[in-house]
Amino acid sequence: MMQALLTPWNVLVDFVASVGRGTRFFLRLCALGVRALGRPRLVIDQIHFIGNYSLSIILVSGLLIGFVLGLQGYYTLRRYGSEEALGLLVALSLVRELGPVVTGLLFAGRAGTSLTAEVGLMKAGEQIDAMEMMAVDPVARVLAPRFVAAVLCVPLLSALFSALGVLGGYIVGVAMIGVDAGAFWSQMQGGVDWLDDVGNGVLKSIVFGYTVAFVALYVGYRAQPTPEGVARATTTTVVAASLAILGLDFILTALMFSTT
Q: What letter would DSSP give residue 179?
């Protein structure tokens, strides 16, 4: 009997059904997210909870990655006598790639799991069911403000990550190793394009914000209302969001380079 249920056709049908449910949930979140902007207090509270509490790990990670980029970049460029281009190397690495991607991964691990656990525990405590019994839409009241807040937080955190990374590269390259400060900044200013480099990085961070917010809320909303179900959902959020970010990063990078 179990073997009859696990046929390839049933697996395909379940997969298509799950994709359909996820798509409908995402479109509903987007529509209700626009309405949630009319209740800014709810969104601001979630920005504080999601973004402010993620700030420390984002800033420290950005600074440390800037240190590493400064060291690795200097010893690589020194082989070709191009140490003055260290600022350009650090800036492009951060604003194009590392800033959005690492911020998205850290945000998924810190804030994404928190959102999933919070929604899952509300479901396990029957708070979601109580809202539905009182004719209150839990998606509009609980999930939509968190969705908007997460989408807004990721680009801002990514910008701070890149800024701290550039500062870390400056500290290592200029203050510790002795690269000329004027060359460090002038090469960066002359080589970083606002549209092709910074704009593409911002676009990536926005897409990653949508991805993490959707995965975290969808998994939490559909979690089994048990302690084991909530724990499994938080793990699923990290894995699914991280893989989605890395896959989307490849697709976006390929599209961006193909248009330049």
A: -
DSSP 220: H
Helix, strand or coil, per DSSP, at residue 39: coil
Do 46 and 145 contact (CB within 8 A), yes or no? yes
Which residue has tokens 């200097």? 74
- What does the longest C-alpha to C-alpha distance in the chain come to? 74
Count of helix runs (H) and strand runs (E) in the chain? 13, 0
The whole-chain average pLDDT of the chain stands at 89
- pLDDT of 184 strictly over 60: yes
Beta carbons of 204 and 254 less than 8 angstroms apart: no
Buried-exposed string 144-174: b where 16+ CB fall within 10 A, e elsewhere: bbbbbbbbbbbbbbbbbbbbbbbbbbbebbb
pLDDT of 258 > 80? The answer is: no
Instruction: Tell me the backbone φ, ψ of residue 241, rounded to 5 degrees.
Output: -65, -40
For 183, residues 6+ apart whose C-beta sits below 8 A from its C-beta are 84, 87
Find the Cα–Cα–Cα–Cα dihedral 100, 102, 106, 109, rounded to 10°: 100
Q: Stretch 14-25: mean pLDDT, rounded?
A: 87
With vertex at residue 223, the alpha carbon angle to CA 218 and CA 225, rounded to the nearest 5 degrees, is 145
Contacts of 233 (CB under 8 A, 6+ apart): 116, 117, 120, 219, 220, 222, 223, 224
Distance spanning both ends of the chain, measured CA to CA: 56
